[in-house]
Write a structure and sequence with these properties.
This protein has 286 residues and is of the alpha+beta class. 51% of the residues lie in helices and 17% in strands. The chain folds into two domains: 153 residues, Beta Polymerase, domain 2 (2-Layer Sandwich), CATH 3.30.460.10; 124 residues. A six-stranded mixed β-sheet has the order 3-4-5-2-1-8, sandwiched between helices. The chain has a two-stranded antiparallel ribbon with strand order 6-7. The protein is globular, with a radius of gyration of 21 Å.
């Protein structure tokens, strides 16, 4: 199987053809983050003023790769907001992620001022956090940037924004602390209501993860392979990644005693993260 470094140059002319107006192309995803493996796809980012319709992008891709490409093109939003053209090339899954320059500028402006949001979308487990775009820009490798758009963005995210850090810690610590002592959670534990309690555990852990990445002033890299990136955080509770995984998947038949222990461990972990952050900056919890 070819490597991303050997495949991407072949595909740049195709991706460039998708763009209308000013554009920039970059390599992103797990390979750009240094955690790609044999199961990872190859991510190519195209940021443009506009792009050609999905049907034309698919036709051009099939012309280059052939029918074995299994091309899927999509687009979301009124006008061009985001889209993609995904296909197979030389045995490797390729995903081209297309985003509006105007939209990225607006998202960057919001995040730099501490305005955060999470959208419920099908294709992401935790929800889509608007500030993930800062992480993508921070690690992406610029391939073509004739208008200097990508270089400008990289300069804007070179340092973790203080307002964003404060907003994430405040919001997600509050979310994490809502559930562990909640009456409905305790009642569900006593009923061994696993479907309900599992959702609570997941929600609390995801909130703690967001708070800890912000606390460390490290951009949240996305939900894949978090066991690796969590252990790289300098300031975290001991064995944090292992404890998160143990809470997510206890590996035993669920029962009342197990769920009681799970709730207590979850509450303890939430308290520990809260103390860790409060020690450094108590005003976050005000």
């Amino acid at each position: 199987m070819s490597t991303p470094d050997t495949l991407i140059p072949d595909l740049i002319p195709l991706v460039r053809r998708f763009a209308i107006g000013a554009y920039g192309i970059a390599a992103g995803g797990s390979h750009a983050k240094g955690i790609g493996d044999a199961q990872s796809d190859v991510d190519i980012y195209l940021f443009a003023e506009d792009v050609f319709p999905p049907g034309e992008r698919s036709a051009w891709t099939e012309q280059l790769v052939g029918p074995a490409a299994q091309v899927t093109s999509w687009q979301r939003g009124d006008g061009f907001v985001e889209g993609g053209t995904d296909f197979w090339y030389q045995g490797q899954r390729i995903e081209t992620w297309l985003r509006s320059v105007r939209g990225v500028d607006a998202t960057l402006s919001a995040c730099l001022s501490g305005q955060i949001r999470r959208d419920c979308v099908t294709w992401t487990v935790m929800g889509f956090y608007n500030y993930v775009i800062l992480s993508d820009i921070h690690v992406m490798r610029i391939l073509e940037d004739p208008a200097g758009i990508l270089a400008r963005w990289k300069g804007q995210v070179a340092e973790y924004p203080s307002a964003l850090r404060q907003a994430i810690m405040r919001q997600y610590l509050q979310e994490a602390k809502f559930w562990p002592e909640n009456f409905h959670y305790r009642s569900a534990v006593e009923r061994a209501d696993v479907i309900y309690t599992a959702g609570i555990v997941q929600q609390v852990l995801y909130a703690l993860i967001q708070a800890l990445f912000a606390f460390n002033a490290v951009y949240f890299p996305g939900e894949k392979m978090l066991a690796i990136t969590l252990e790289k955080l300098k300031r975290r509770p001991p064995a944090f990644g292992q404890r998160v995984q143990a809470l997510m998947y206890p590996g035993q038949k669920p029962g009342v005693e197990q769920l009681r222990a799970q709730r207590e461990a979850l509450a303890a972990l939430a308290d520990e993260v809260e103390r860790l952050i409060a020690t450094d900056d108590a005003k976050i919890l005000a």
